[in-house]
Amino acid sequence: MATERPDHQRIVITGVGLSAPNGNSLPEFRHALLEGRSGVSAFETRYFGPTVAGVCDFDELRHQKRKEVRRGTRAGSVGIFCASEAVADSGLDWENVDRSTVGIYVGVTEHGNVETENEIFLIKGFDYDTQYWSHHHNPRTVANNPAGEISLNLGVTGPHYTLGAACAAGNAGIIQGVQMLRLEECDVALCGGVSESIHSFGIFASFNSQGALAKHESPERASRPFDADRNGIVVAEGGCMFVLERLDAARARGAKIHGEIAGYAMNSDATDFVLPDPGRQAECIHLALRRAGMNPEDIDIVSTHATSTVSGDAQECQALRQVWGDNGRHTLMNNTKSFIGHAMGAAGALELAGNLPAFDDGVCHASINLDRLDQQCELPGLVANRPREVGTINTILNNSFGMLGINSVVIVKRV
After folding, report:
1. What is the structure's pLDDT at 1?
2. Angle, alpha carbons 317-320-324 (nearest 5°)
3. Which of 158, 197, 273, 294 is 20 to 30 A distant from 144 in Cα terms?
4. Which residues in the chain come in under a pLDDT of 70?
């Protein structure tokens, strides 16, 4: 069992900023989740044609000028919006914060595909004459771009970088923020994940070629984790950034605390490019629990990763049963991708954020679009279609797994 850390080593969430397909603030997002309102809609993308996607609709000009939006990237704009909203939510006296003590850690699935595809499309119209190639290409496509755009916009002179961790990246960004605060490499961490994936036709084409792209006559019902009729992923864009601080600093300034990072873990399957290994996923969950000093029965809500693919959902459910057995009815399990699709690098951060208000309202939001449960996805505590009022919720465990066998788990507790 883990021993209680001193307040200087306890890391808490004091700010949340997000853009999701069904909300552009934590209260708006939470309301949509409790209301059962999907953010998935019909979408059409170059070369691929009509499909469905989770599309964000936020005000890019709230925190950027038009010139900055034109020069930068969609991922950068998402990150700037989310980071700025998180800072505002934190109540930090930002004008007087020493920006050299702020670190920016942004999880991404991939970066640069959108910009490269767009520029190749444009240069094709000029017979591939490179004098028409954008001189903004390199700063747009370097891997650190989303974090760098946030740094430029907010004037942060501390470290900034992205973490490429496939669809585990949102959790990875949070974990990096926690570690850097504990190492005293920064005093404030802006961390989470962003995704601009819907603007890359290659993403849709690849999932389609794998037979893993969702199709449904009603877009809002296309993302259906655990359902026997699920047929693939709904690609989504979005972002979520958190302000993390040490507990003593947060208390000293009287900050509202959304929750404390109680434990975390990352590991690798080392077995397959895309097929998850439930044994390694279960090991990752156990490691996070051990570091948090908790047992499975201490967890009130598990936010599942399930993406609505036939094999992926079943493998995760196998891992969850390995940890909780058949008697884990006290631990409730839900899914956020059923509402917004799979936001790739932003997924883990958004899914954690959507559950955080449960500490205040005592409600576990559901997994929607679950008409006929796949027997391979039976979980004792699965909350289906309607939210469940619990009363008191003290702990949330957030699963986030990715291609090439990368697994991540973050546990947050009430302070």
Report:
1. 46
2. 140
3. 273
4. 1-3, 327-329
Point out which residues pair with 406 in neighbouring strands. 268, 402
The residue with tokens 């890359």 is 200
Write down how long the chain is. Answer: 415
3-state SS, residue 312: helix
Helix and strand element counts for the chain (H, E): 14, 14
The model carries a pTM of 0.97
Task: For residue 235, give the DSSP letter.
Answer: B
How high is the pLDDT of residue 326?
A: 75
The pLDDT, as a whole number, for residue 4 is: 81
User: Which contiguous run of DSSP H or E holds residue 209?
Assistant: helix 201-209
What are the pLDDT digits (tens) for 87-102? 999 999 999 999 999 9
Q: How far apart are CA 408 and CA 175, in angstroms?
A: 9
Q: What domains lie within the chain, and their CATH numbers?
A: 7-252 (3.40.47.10), 264-413 (3.40.47.10)
155 conformational bin, left if phi > 0, alpha if psi -120 to 50, beta if neither: left
